[in-house]
Amino acid sequence: MSNFLDTAKIHVQAGKGGDGMVAFRREKYVPDGGPAGGDGGKGGSVIFYVDEGLRTLLDFRYNRHFKAKNGENGMSKGMYGAGADDLYVAVPPGTIVRDLETGQLLADLTHAGDEVVVAQGGRGGRGNIRFATHKNPAPSIAENGEPGQARELSLELKLLADVALIGFPSAGKSTLLSVISNAKPKIADYPFTTLVPNLGVVKLGVDHEFVVADTPGLIEGASEGVGLGIDFLRHIERSKVLVHVVDMAATHGRDPFDDFQQIMEELESYNERLLLRPMIIVANKMDESIAWENLKDFKEKLTSYYQAHPDIAVKDLYEISAWQNKGVKELLWAIDKEIQATDFIPLQEEVEDDHVHYQLEEQEDDFQVHRLNGDYYLVTGAKIEKLFEMTNKAHDESMQRFARQMRAMGIDQALRDKGAQSGDTVEISGYQFEFFE
């Protein structure tokens, strides 16, 4: 089983707020003790944060459910319940978090210290001490805690690397990575040896080090899902410099320039702005005699290619033998120089706009009334269902308060407009009660 995972779908559930309490002071020598029920504590939120030591979403393969703790209930003598601790979940740098249902982008967590609340904990319910008034100095009213937010999330990892090695399978990318860094990728003389991206750190000297990503080989049609490319093209999106490794010895009978041209077409199909990023071409496997013959033809065709594509930001061509470690040092210093001189080019063109645009959001109705079958009515809606969840149903006075809230929201009138009459049944959140004028 692969130890690399770059997508995941998970469920997060924030903690419910603690319930408020109905209580009264009954101490000796304290006349007219009054209400003494405390508030519930806040439920814990679910928070994602960046852990620089992580490089994969593998942990989310085995644990797909994350639930924060509920707040403590309020207590007598006016004591509040304790709030629950937030649940912190570590993700690797480069993680994109989206709401699975709506597709909304919640966060792009790229740097150490980045964090985002993905599920908000519910507030604690108020105890009866909070409802005391001059008209009702001893209320038997308390709220249940607010439900915690629940969400289905999709996670997508895009590796953070200064340099991305691209090219056809078996072009020598993994060999090059193993030579220039401490990474130990699998190396073999057959296509698709590399099944997952590998990261390595290149250290040339003080203030001269960079991260290199070796991605699985691309082939024709990769941007449309052929081979492994579509799964890993995303991992070159955050790289400042592209290093295009070409098998100049044509080990598997392919033409080196055709390989180069097909990869360039796949990059353009995936996102044409990738071709605006600096690219260094590496003619690899120059230890074989046929490679020098192929190199001459490659350079001639490359000149014509540049003339037909003047916008492509291709830099110099370097001749190396990764296996014999020849020409590699010069290549690394050229890459380092390019990293230092290059500003990151985003894949989405930034448009400067001094104007602020305001747009009214579509607000969901507080409630909807549905007539299901003759004298049976169903009331739905996020607000009314939340109010019902937070109503303490063990006390008549709390239920009377909920009835007043329904009336103030206009639900009684909406039921009449739908034809409801005294004695008809109304359901809210699975609870049935009788409608009366």
Can you characterise this structure?
- The chain has helices at 59-62, 173-180, 229-232, 256-270, 289-308, 328-341, 382-389, 396-409, 411-417; strands at residues 7-13, 46-50, 65-67, 87-91, 95-99, 105-109, 115-119, 150-157, 163-166, 198-205, 208-214, 241-247, 279-284, 314-319, 368-371, 376-380, 425-428, 431-434.
- With 437 residues, it is an alpha/beta fold.
- The longest helix is centred in the C-terminal third of the chain and has 20 residues, at 289-308.
- Strands 10-11-9-12-13-14 form a six-stranded mixed sheet, sandwiched between helices.
Radius of gyration: 32 Å
How are helices and strands ordered from N to C?
Answer: EEHEEEEEEEHEEHEHEHEHEEHHHEE
In what order do the strands lie side by side in the largest sheet?
A: 10-11-9-12-13-14
* Average pLDDT score: 84
Report, as a whole number of angstroms, the end-to-end distance.
Answer: 66 Å
Biggest sheet character: 6 strands, mixed
Low-confidence stretches: 190-194, 219-229, 350-358
Q: What proportion of the residues form beta strands (DSSP E)?
A: 15-25%
What's the number of extended β-strand segments?
18
Give helix % range: 10-25%
Shape annotation: elongated
